[in-house]
Design goal:
Layout lengths: L3 E6 L3 E6 L4 E6 L10 H15 L6 E6 L4 E3 L4 H5 L3 H19 L5 E5 L2 E3 L1 H7 L3 E5 L3 E3 L13 H9 L1 H10 L3 E2 H7 L4 E3 L4 H13 L3 H13 L5 H16 L2 H12 L9
Parallel strand pairs: 3-4, 4-6, 5-7, 6-8, 7-9, 8-11
Antiparallel strand pairs: 1-2, 2-3, 9-10
Helix pairs in contact: 1-3, 5-6, 9-10
GO molecular function, one term: enoyl-CoA hydratase activity
InterPro entries: ClpP/crotonase-like_dom_sf, Enoyl-CoA_hyd/isom_CS, Enoyl-CoA_hydra/iso, Enoyl-CoA_hydra_C
Protein name: enoyl-CoA hydratase
Length: 269
Amino acid sequence: MSTVSEERYGEWIVVRRDTGTHVAELVLDRPKAMNAVSAGLAADLVEACTALGGDRTMRATVLSSSNDRAFCVGADLKERNALSDADLSRHRPTARAAYTGVLDLPMPTIAAVHGFALGGGFELALSCDVIVADTTAVVGLPEVSVGVIPGGGGTQLLPRRVGAARAAELIFSARRVEAAEAREIGLVDELVEAAEDRAEALALAGRIAGNSPVGLRAAKRALRTGWGLDLWAGLEIEDAAWRTVAFSGDRTEGVAAFNEKRKPQWPGE
């Protein structure tokens, strides 16, 4: 039986947990500001990711928005305009921790993107493993147009998605990319009809969460840790992750269930 609980972290983040599907939903909930990343939202996101990262009952997470017109429009520039250099320096560690909090979640993560996902908003999506977007999506990293650079991982995550030259063009031009082109060049992974992004992301998360929780976390760890390494170093990381799962209760149950032609009951150990 499925039970959905909802918990608010600070003022701007909601986490829903479904015990039946083992899927969590991390909701950006500052709708009047189109989820602009303020200092407060960043701090709330750090708190939520810390709690969710330690929850071993959740096997996949969807990052979504409570605003119909936007996933997240990026940094709160109205707030930034009032900050001194000292204020900006003081807020920087929390802002950085918010993005790495999403990036470091140990379970597979899926961003459900519609409307504007710009600057820091698109960097939150890039911090997820998979991006599902609807046909209203407009994405981009326009930071150089306001005198800064992507500071939530964009200069490192975007080249890993689309290659160095394409990432350079997108970051240097600061241009916005509409949904069809975003899908064509790999900025998003799946494109669905308008208003279907959340439903499709949750459905995908549910399919993922049916698999071994130990296997999912180990596979993600191998994928992420192996980024940027040479092949042989990456294979060593893969072998270490394989050893984690090969002697686990999940491997024993998975093999037994396959041979007995039944659905696995994962111990998650």
